[in-house]
Sequence to fold (322 residues):
Amino acid sequence: MPSVSHMPTIASPPSASAVEIRGLAKTYANGFQALKGVDLEIRRGEIFALLGPNGAGKTTLISIVCGLARASAGSVRVDGHDIVADYRAARSSIGLVPQELSTDAFETVWATVNFSRGLFGRPADPAYLERVLRELSLWDKRKSRIMTLSGGMKRRVLIAKALAHEPTVLFLDEPTAGVDVELRRDMWKMVRRLRDEGMTIILTTHYIEEAEDMADRIGVINKGELMLVEEKRALMRKLGKKQLVLRLRQPLASLPSALARYDLELADQGRTLVHVFDKSGEAEGIAPLMRDLIGQGIEVQDIEASESSLEDIFVNLVREQA
Fold:
């Protein structure tokens, strides 16, 4: 078994999992259960999106993994290191971009980023730090005190601090909340590059379209329980729906009994038929429906199709658990 001084690199990982969570629970003194026996494995080199409404347990889970809070039960390993028994090695593998804009206000950008690198025992590497600051459009601000920066620039500094010690696992807790479009674009460009270089990235976000665009896998947490973990594409196939809107040439007073076997809804005062179906049932359902419409003498003037977004799936999942 390798010692801490010979930690395995991303190129030759000791296991397929970057983060292993077993039976993680958190109960506060007032009896509130923030986490209820969460089991989760996050693979090396993936972007994992953790979604959930406010108060679902996302930040609590991240805080425990990053050593900022104590679990009531369960265990966590990061890069093969137990976060309690081998705290220093586990924490040095982690970069965290928190929700709060907490920075060293009187320090310069360069000083605070350089200090963050040294804090984890990493040797000086000005070229690496310059690369990070340039990617975040902070290089021209490197001599500026953080207190003089805008909110968006301060958010960039938090990201630079999280990356300063070259972690293998990066946590982004609501990283784009309240930031400008330019920063969001820069950040996701960097995140994709980091993932391509082997870094594992875990993000929470209220912008579900970001998760749909960025993530390899999706986890949904609600009321402290992990409801599902799924490959994004598989999740969209499994839980996604398609909606077919058929605009009729002549309105219908009611649905003919011959169409009762289809999931149809008459809308817009009989001028529109709405058909909702699983994506997997597309081939079997639409052709017979169109034949039966013709058989009933119903003429279709226009057809529109739409698919469920990840947000639709997420909202439905949370609503079902409520």
